[in-house]
Amino acid sequence: MLTLKMFLNGQEVSVDVEPGELLADVLRDKLGLIGTKISCGEGECGACTVLVDGKAVDSCLYPVLKAQGREVITIEGLGQDNRLDTIQQAFVDKTAPQCGYCIPGMVISAKALLDENPHPTRKEIEEGISGNLCRCTGYYQIIEAIELACERLAEEGGTG
Amino acid sequence: MLEARGGEARIIAGGTDLVLQSQRGQCLAKAMVDITRIPGLDHIEERDGLIYIGAQVTHGQVAASPLIRSRAGVLAEACGSVGGPQIRNVGTLVGNVVNALPAADGAIALFALDAEAEVAERAGRRWTPIATLYAGVGLCTVDPCTAMITQLRFRALGKGEVGAFERLAKRRALVLPILNTAAIVGLDGDKVEKARIAIGPVAATPFVATEAAEVLVGRTPDEASVTEAAELAAQAAQPRDSLLRGSAEYRKAMVEVLVRRALWRAVEGASLQEGEDANS
Q: Same domain for B151 and B126?
């Protein structure tokens, strides 16, 4: 066992881990953050996407020790006090989720995109979520939700 | 550190391939040595006409690099096609070489650029053409339990020299290629001065179609010469029947199509540059 320290959703956390463990498993099984989903388990679907130092990564392929000292943001880190974050609210308003399983990963990928590029073209949005598979929606509502989030964020003046 | 563990520890960088190999029992190392925080391995820089890329540099960083986009655009295109954004944020270009797969997008562009790798091992450091590191499908002669590739280098593309990367796959992202190719064409006036074509996966290692490229040299890049080169490339390629990728026959026919597309795009880019030169 080793003790891993990371900044998770804005708070410093310490957790005992085995060297071979993966970030997705530690988040879900040891830290109870089950918003991060595991589907393919091999980096093909993006359901497990989280931010590490602001970059979207597949947490199912990410050795947990790589997160030592880094800032990790999961879907639980968005919004506050039962108030949805702007991207999440846009997903709700555009009825982007159907079964919902891919949505935490989609929202995190959308956040990674908008933090870096607040005014993406439709093609850039498509590229931004190209690492996330959705088997229900055909992606249109998801893309529209991200476009709506862009507009609202521009009005709010930031990606807070 | 590797030496202290006597071959039981191996290098890990991004780990996007290694974690899977490890889960499938294909990696027997008892410990991993993560190189992603070692200083001095994160560079993308040009010195004396050569571009150097360190072992920590991810596909995403290569694809977004202004230097690579302007002086080796073919590599930026190739790295931008790997996996999806999440994989590109973690997986490294050097890892693409160490895994030695004949389909690796980044590696195919590196073969077209005739890249070299710096290998650090017990005896010291040496530069060697990346082609010498490939021993078969997934077999790299650099043993990650005793040595590592510290950086890559290749000549930056000059004036009138442009590359293009083309890929055929079932989807646009998150899927291994049925075929991929990188072609570089250098023009002197309206004649081809040099050309290089790399194709994957049509052999056990990334394949460089030498004859196909040579047939272009000294000629005007027109319909006839480009078609001839693409046909020669298809003849030389030896794709296998594959349940994932399609029949050998289909893939051989598609090699011609992809190589022709890549050559045309490279020729158009190079002609534009030569045209600018003539007008200035």
A: yes
